[in-house]
Amino acid sequence: MFxxxxxxxxxxxxxxxxxxxxxxxxxxxxxxxxxxxxxxTDIPSQQLSAYYDLRDRSSYIQVTNVAPKPVAIHVxxxxxxxxxxxxxxxxxxxxxxxxxxxxxxIKRNDGSEVPVNLNDDSNGYVVITIDSDxxxxxxxxxxxxxxxxxxIIDSAGYEYRANLAAQGFIPHEDTFQIPMxxxxxxxxxxxxxxxxxxxxVQNARSESSTFSLAxxxxxxxxxxxxxxxxxxxxxxxxxxxxxxxxxxSVMNYGINEDYKASRGDDLLCPGGSLADPKGGFIxxxxxxxxxxxxxxxxxxxxxxxxxxxxxxxxxxxxxxGSIDYWFIAGDEFIAEDxxxx
Length: 341
Known about the structure:
Structural class: mainly beta
Distance between the termini: 22 Å
Strand content: over 45%
Number of domains: 1
Radius of gyration: 19 Å
Oligomer: single chain
Mean pLDDT: 78
């Protein structure tokens, strides 16, 4: 059932900057970044994550240790095509060491084979976490940790490339619950989309300025729900149903009939077309996690951290494409009850 349309005025300011400086094929975040956000893509972190896709695509994940000490890492792969079943392995990086994982043929940093076999039609997400035994200085003043990027090469010749989503080390108490914006356009003949979202949960501990994560995360089966609104460049709206992003169900959507899914048939706005399909933006509103236990131990300093990552890729199916983040957030930035917004 379609929803009653909401006024455009409250979100147009957020989207104007990136929408009107777009060039080439572009898909990305059009809202201001959250103040003192706890998630980044360009600083070292204790934990990284990435989307991958092997459906007539190749996926590569690069990880670099920028710490002055060796680190052990735990790599977890969650397979959307297999009800989000997990495969995992461990690896080691010396200082300033870089490893590239080809998800069609995964090898450890020392060249040894990893007993992990993904289907040719597999897609999902990967989380890389530094083992707590690595004894790094993980706090807001540190630049120790890992950093990286991912690369998805489509059989049609275009690529998606971006830095890995990285969790920062600064616990954050404030809320950030305004709509998130992703923009898109038809430059270079773009008419296909990958609107991606995945969610995982981990145990964490906060002591003074230190924020430490457990070595292992779990998929968050319920995912995240959003109200979806799509606007063209003339601000003409297209209302869509409330949708869920979750691994094991649907974590990759097309936008509408003008920008169909690169893979699969799921659309944010099935049956809907924009009055002016040359471009526009998507507003993701009233984000809500499912049920989770906020505190995971006897001590209030131990808690669960549900983490959602959203990306948007736009391509023309014939050699040109781009991808960017529209949301990287923890539970501080998504309302548990949309009525509280």
